[in-house]
Write a structure and sequence with these properties.
heterodimer, A: 114 residues, mainly beta, seven-stranded mixed β-sheet, four-stranded antiparallel β-sheet, 49% strand, B: 110 residues, six-stranded mixed β-sheet, 11 strands, 0% helix, globular
Chain lengths: 114, 110
């Protein structure tokens, strides 16, 4: 059972480039999330989805876009990369079970924008 | 902006001691609270959840909740070097959306 799989694990971008971080889960979870974590900081929610076709903004959505065409996949698109987007990105998923608070995280994608 | 506040530490304790980690939150309507552990370079993992006032124990871990004071804590008894990690407090703001604190780094020395 793979859980939550993120690719790539590491990436260096130049300012102004674009890229997509991939996230897939095989647990049939309804909820999926993208968080970013800056050094020494907590997790900030970028976007989340409560099911296929439904997405919504989190705390820090600017500069990012998402889509959710299937239950399994939740890619995060970075347009016009900026140094402020240098961070570790975590994708997570959870079930519809009431308020368990258990998010299953991927291993993270470390992005550097130079 | 709903906030979750934690002391960033590091909190240093000797092996075998009790480590006490604290967290305050701003949204008085919050109903569920969680502690995640994150080892350096790894992803967070859930270790405790608490929903009602009082204490909840699970092995060496005890979570404490005081909704009137908007305060959550995590006690780790008989601390081990393997407990050295960053502990993230998280609050459910609805629709399974968690707001995380910045985390407290715990160092347990042998």
């Amino acid at each position: 059972n793979a859980g939550v799989t993120q690719t790539p694990k590491f990436r260096i971008l130049k300012i102004g480039q674009s890229m997509t971080l991939q996230c897939a889960q095989d647990m049939n979870h309804n909820y999926m999330y993208w968080y970013r974590q800056d050094p020494g900081m907590g997790l900030k929610l970028i976007y989340y989805s409560v099911g296929a076709g439904i997405t919504d903004k989190g705390e820090v959505p600017n500069g990012y876009n998402v889509s959710r065409s299937t239950t399994e996949d939740f890619p995060l698109r970075l347009e016009l990369a900026a140094p402020s987007q240098t961070s570790v990105y975590f994708c997570a998923s959870s079930t519809l079970a009431a308020n368990t608070g258990e998010l299953f995280f991927g291993e993270g994608s470390r992005l550097t924008v130079l | 902006q709903k906030e979750v506040e934690q002391n960033s530490g590091p909190l240093s304790v000797p092996e075998g001691a009790i480590a006490s980690l604290n967290c305050t939150y701003s949204d008085r309507g919050s109903q569920s609270f969680f502690w995640y552990r994150q080892y350096s370079g790894k992803s967070p993992e859930l270790i405790m959840s608490i929903y009602s006032n009082g204490d909840k124990e699970d092995g060496r871990f005890t979570a404490q909740l005081n909704k009137a004071s908007q305060y959550v804590s995590l006690l780790i008894r008989d601390s081990q070097p393997s407990d050295s990690a960053t502990y993230l407090c998280a609050v459910n703001t609805g629709f399974q959306k968690l707001v995380f604190g910045t985390g407290t780094r715990l160092l347990v020395s042998p």
